[in-house]
Every structure is written in structure tokens, then in C-alpha cells.
Amino acid sequence: MGKYEGDPVWDDVVPIPQDDGEGALAAIAYTDEYAEAMGYLRAVMAAKEYSPRVLDLTEHIISMNAAHYTVWLYRASTLLALNSSIPVELEWVNNVALDNQKNYQIWHHRQILIDHLYDSMSSDPAALKSLAESEVAFMTEMFNEDSKNYHVWSYRQWVVRKLDLFDKGEIECIETLLRQDVRNNSAWSHRFFVVFSNPKYCTPGSKATEYDPKIPGEILDREIEFAKAATFEAPQNQSPWNYLRGVLKKGGRKLSSLECFAGEFVKIPEVGEEDIKSSHALDFLADVWAQKGENEKADKALTLLGDKYDRIRKNYWDWRRTSLK
């Protein structure tokens, strides 16, 4: 006898078995416990039942398969229909998330919960502040487990927009993560989003890779100095070099404005051996020199990249050489 068969709580429900049909799906094998639970879930979904026992059922199924999208959606519908405690649900979700680091469905469910909470407290700044602090605290806990978890970073971007966290506190949180690991490209990407999507001074709808004339000069200068400091810490880390390119693009500034800075990592004498501390700086200078029409210098830089400093992408560097006019 299964978990639900014979249970008086479920006596009135006739489970609906899975119709696998024919072909590949028919070969899928489930445990008896999982198959039984899903049979009861199909039955309550068909009856459009929203009840505490449905919450118990979905919790049991999620404990066996946390990636079942339909179960999460029906659980959310049931919670809202019953006007259940969202904070209590969030505590439960926290534990599930920590046990299922790479699960997307959990974070979609969390968005539904936060959306509902937000609607109920949108006119209460103190409550919104508390909500933001609790969400940031939990994401910090998740990042302590895996600081590059894509699902958490995607969710964090959504939270920043939803709760308007384009502030100094969010930037300081990201700086903390980058001090712990300056090579965390996810943290670099999030910083760029926070800085250059801030509705207080950015052009609405401005794409990440396009010039935005509304960005204040002091913001651009601050971000350039931050990225420059990170390149000195780890010259061969590509993230801050990409960040610098993005900041210059946003500010409508030329790459050549940082030629002297990049030159601190690249020495190519007319006679003797070169001294290259960063292949990314060499790539940066190749673009600078190409844009300035100094094709001989650009060709030299690209040749060094292909033949010595980034040989795995030699075909790419050789192709870049052909584009020099």
C-alpha cells in the first residue's frame, strides 16, 4: 500500500495514472512512491482543488523531484488561493534552494512570492526595506555556497528592478564579492547592470552596449578607476578589461583614452624582447592602434597574441590582422 492509498485524508480522491502513450516517453521509469503522488496530483489539478492537503502533496513531490515545473506552478496557485503565509513559504523555499543549487523552478516560484508580497506592502517603505534586506541576506547565503550561481544572479537582477535597489548598498555588496574573487564574471556583470541601468540617471531602455549621454561623468570616472584597480590586482583576468570597454562605450569615450594605462602592462621595444604582463591589455592596445590607424603596431600586437600569448585562438588573431586597413 502506498503513502496515500488508505489514508483517510485522501479517501475521496481517485488518482489519475500517467498516460505515457507509446515511444520514448513510455520507457520513463518512476519510483512507485513518485508515481503514486503524481497520480493524486493529477486528480486534484483536474478538480481544481486548492487546499492544505494539496500543499502537503506538492511539498512531498518536490522533495522527490524539485525540478517539476508544473508542481511548482500549482503549489503557487494553491498558496495564493488559500492566502497562505508567504514568509512561512519563503523559509521553506530557502531550505529547498540550498539543497538544490542549480534549480531554476525554485527561483521562478520565489518571484511569484515576492511579487505577491510587494503588492501587499508597496505603500510601506519600512516593510519594503525589510524585505529587500532579507532577500539580499539569503542571496548572500546562496553565494557562500556558489558565488557564480547563474540562477541566483538572474534572480538578483530581477530583485534589484522590483525593489529599486539601484543604490550604494547594492554596489557595496558586489564589491565585497569581487574582493573575495576578482575573477567572478557574474559579479562584474551585475555591477555593470546596477550602475548602468539605474533609472535615476540612465536613459530608459538603453541597451548595455550603446552610448548613453545621460550617464554622469563622475559615475564613468568612478567605474573606470574601480576596474583599473582590479586589473592591477590580476592583470590576466579578462573581466575588468571587458568592464573597461563597456564603461567607455556607455560614456562615449574612446579606447585611446586608456592607451597609457594599458601600456603599463605591455612593453614592445623596437629592439629586444617584449614584456607582456596581460594578453588582454595587448588585445586592448591592438584595438586602440587600429582605431588610430597605427596598423603596423596593431599588426605586431595581433601577431604576438596569435604566435605567443594566446595561441589557442591563433586563427582568430590572424583573422583580425586581415581586417587592418
UniProtKB/TrEMBL annotation:
Cited SUPFAM superfamilies: Protein prenylyltransferase
Question: What species was this sequence derived from?
Answer: Mollisia scopiformis
Asked if the keyword Transferase belongs to this entry, the reply reads yes
EC nos:
2.5.1.58, 2.5.1.59
Family per similarity comment: Belongs to the protein prenyltransferase subunit alpha family.
State the source organism's domain of life. Eukaryota
Q: What is this protein called?
A: Protein farnesyltransferase/geranylgeranyltransferase type-1 subunit alpha
List the Pfam families hit by this protein, alphabetically: PPTA
Q: Which cofactor does it need?
A: Mg(2+)
Q: Which top EC class applies here? A: transferase
| GO MF, one annotated term | protein farnesyltransferase activity
| Record bears the keyword Repeat | yes
A single Gene Ontology CC term: CAAX-protein geranylgeranyltransferase complex
User: Which of UniProt's keywords are assigned here?
Assistant: Magnesium, Prenyltransferase, Repeat, Transferase
